[in-house]
Amino acid sequence: MSEQQLDLQRIFELEPHGPDTFVGESPAYSWGRIYGGLVIAQALWAATQTVRPEHGVHSLHAYFILGGDLSEPVRYEVDRIRNGRSFTTRRVAARQSSGAILTLSCSFHVAESGPETQSAKIPDVAPPDESRSEWDAGALRCDVELPAQPPRSMAWVRYPGRLPDDPRLHACALAYLSDVNPMSAVHRSFPDEPEGGLMGASLDHAMWFHRPARSDDWLLFDMNAHGMIRSRGLATGTVFHPDGYLVASIAQEGLLRAPRG
Questions:
Q1: Which end of the chain has fewer beta carbons closer than 10 Å to its terminal beta carbon, N or C?
Q2: Cα 138 to the chain's mean position, in Å?
């Protein structure tokens, strides 16, 4: 979708509210609910505040429970599941007055030396054209034109403005961007869109961080959908740096159905 420009420069300024508890604000998204990628990113940033700096996130798994209310801040409660020498695990509950709106589990790994191989290859597509980019959830998005089938969504995406050099912050910004186009791929799995359109919602979200990358530079998000079953569709995909190296992998399940009532 094409949206207006939003100020995202302060979304990682979480306010501490007691031990391992943080509060975050949301921009005024035009569709009337908090963007799911924002809650994932802020929850991950809250967890990061409780982890030793040498441990970087390598995976997260989240469940969307309720739509976030734009008129309320979100409270992030971090549970220190495990503190290890090599791995650290955290669980985060994001809450508003209605109850939990998202739960997130994430794991952090100290940097280790070891072999690096890569079988995934970046698609052979043109580089992003800044003049064709659009605002989507406050991020810049430049879609790659693809045939309708197989169901797929490919887009160059970047975080607006310039972020500090902290790689932990760029991982959280990448988590923000990771919710931009999976549902676009899922939508293409729907056989015949009914008159009046479809109601869509993200259900759960998983992400694996392979290599650090600047999220305020263009990255290629390539999402493939795998069909619709009982109103649910799954999209999986990869994130590439323009130089071809694999940055992250993403999986998201979404709900698509005709509006009820």
A1: C
A2: 13
Which of the residues are catalytic? 179, 202, 252
- Which residue has 């939508």 as its token pair? 187
Using only C-alpha atoms, what is the Rg of the chain? Answer: 18
CB 45 within 8 Å of CB 169 = yes
Q: Is the pTM of this model over 0.70?
A: yes
SS3 state at 80: strand
Tokens 């409660």: give the residue: 77
Q: Are strands 74-83 and 21-24 parallel, antiparallel or unpaired?
A: antiparallel
For 8-37, the pLDDT digits (tens) are: 989 999 999 999 999 999 999 999 999 999
**Measured between alpha carbons, how far is 20 from 54 in angstroms, rounded to an integer?**
19
Six-digit token pair at 53? 């700096």
Quote the CA–CA distance of 103 and 93 in Å, as a whole number.
Answer: 5
